[in-house]
Structure formats: structure tokens, C-alpha cells
Amino acid sequence: MFKNCTSAFIAAAVILIEELANKVAIVTGASTGIGEEIAYLYCQSGASVFIISRRQHVLEKVAKRCLELGGRQVAVYAADMGVDEDIQAIPQVFKKHFPESLVDHLILNHKLENQIGSWRGTAENLTQLYNIINVNFYGYVKIASLMRPFLEQSAGSIGVVSSASGRSNSPYIISYSSSKHALDGFFAGWRLELEAERSNVSITYCTLGLIETENMRKEINNFRFENFNLMSAVSAKDTATAIVMATVRRYRELYFPWFETKIPLLFRYWFPVTLDKITAFLLKAKQ
């Protein structure tokens, strides 16, 4: 039943082509997975994209495919989201490639590869926490802040790609979860400020469940769980469609897949002990 609900949601996205034609989007974390699919979706609809990720050679392959799919203009920027100088240069690099264009949509999707494991309070744990917060949280805030003037000129939209782990208690990925909780707090509060100021910029906060990507499989394989096979993943392509639809239509929030992300959030407030027990069962580590 819930799979059919997801399919119905995706089927409703057919009008995206008309909504995206001639738009200009910035997509971070665009070299693989969800970000790559988001870039392709825009270009299939005749939009222009400025795609950002760390690996230049991979970005160039994605850009080539974007043009093949019908993208009006495609530009790449190889940047490390943990390096402030790289982030500060984004507005200048964008204007270099798109001197006459505004930014219609900013999709913040990048993340530092997560290392799943128990928190021991070691120096390695603390360094990992610092690095993840720097990339997954500060990186989002910095880029959104820098691009706000561009978005205000176009009455643009910001899509913040987050996770259900940023809305619930998530063992073994504490650093990653903390960065996502921080995103929720910042962007929810900033949205209220923008609304109070009657800004024309919208913020869509996307809470995602388990998504089938190469990075997800790599991370999961590094730390095996006894009951993980009871959890199902949805495709990166369907997820990209949901994110873009929600951002373009200026939804306040997206839960995708809905059942796997919205219901646990309700349980967190209504039945917190039960949710913790279910989470502990699903994420029970093999000995």
C-alpha cells in the first residue's frame, strides 16, 4: 500500500517539465546519487544547472550527460564544502558562468561520507564530529546565506536535503544525526524570520528515509546490522523527483517516503520509548 502511495506521488510529477523549463538551479553534491539525479531532472526539462561537488572529473561526466539530456547551460565547480575559501567563491564562480542569470532554485544536497560506528569519545570521534558539522551544517548555512541576494532577485526557492536521522534518535551515526538536527533547527527558524520579513524566498526542508545510492551501500557495508534487511530503500531518481517537486512548488516540508519518515516522527513525540525500542531492534549490530 505504501509503495503504491510513493508511486502515486511520483506520477504526479509529470508537470515538472513545464515548471522547470528555462529555470536556473544550483545543486550541491551533484556528482553522484540524489544530487546527480536532480541535475538530470532539471536538464531533461530544459533548465540550466550549476553543479558543485569535490571531484572535477566526475562532475564533468555528469555535465556531459546533462547536456545530452537537453540542459540549456551546464557549468561545474569542483569545491570542498569543508573549505571556507571554496564556499566563499561560489557567487563569483556562478556569475562567471551565468553573468545574466538569476538563481531560481538552490538545492543543498552535499554531505561528508559517514563512518558508521559506536561513539567512544575518542579523538577520532571528535574529529569526525567536527568535520561532519563543518560540511553538513555550516556548509549549508554558508551557501544559503551567500546566495540569498540572488534568490531574492528571482523570488527563488531553497531545498534543504536532510534525513529522518535529523528528526529522531539515531545510534551509530551520532555525528551525522547531529548535523541534520542542526539543519532542522537553523532552517526552520530562518524560514520563520523570512516569513516575518515577508521575504519572497521559500525554504523546503526535505526529510528523507533510506535511499538506494552507492554511498549508502558503502556506509552500511562498513557496519553490519542483524535486522537491516527489514528496511527497504527507495531509488535516488524517485527521491530526486520528490525533492525538486517540493522545492519548485515551495512546500514547507517534504517527507519521503512518507510512511518511513513521517510516522517515526509522530512516534517520537507520542510513543518515544516504543520508537527507541524499534530503532534499537532494526539497528542491532552483529557481534
In a nutshell, what does this entry contain?
It contains 12 helices and 9 strands. The chain has 287 residues and is an alpha/beta fold.
Task: Give an account of the 3D structure.
The protein is of the alpha/beta class. It has a single domain, classed as Rossmann fold. It has helices at 2-11, 16-20, 33-44, 56-69, 84-88, 90-97, 123-154, 174-196, 214-221, 236-248, 258-270, 272-282, and strands spanning 24-28, 48-53, 74-78, 105-108, 157-163, 202-208, 211-212, 234-235, 253-256. It has a seven-stranded parallel sheet, sandwiched between helices. Strands 7-8 form a two-stranded parallel ribbon. Helix 3 runs parallel beside helix 4, helix 3 (33-44) crosses helix 10 and helix 11 crosses helix 12. Residues 1-5 have low confidence and may be disordered.
Which key phrases capture this entry?
287 residues; alpha/beta; 9 strands; disordered N terminus; two-stranded parallel sheet; Rossmann fold; seven-stranded parallel sheet
Topology:
Blueprint: H1 2-11, H2 16-20, E1 24-28, H3 33-44, E2 48-53, H4 56-69, E3 74-78, H5 84-88, H6 90-97, E4 105-108, H7 123-154, E5 157-163, H8 174-196, E6 202-208, E7 211-212, H9 214-221, E8 234-235, H10 236-248, E9 253-256, H11 258-270, H12 272-282
Parallel strand pairs: 1-2, 1-4, 2-3, 4-5, 5-6, 6-9, 7-8
Helix pairs in contact: 3-4, 3-10, 7-8, 11-12
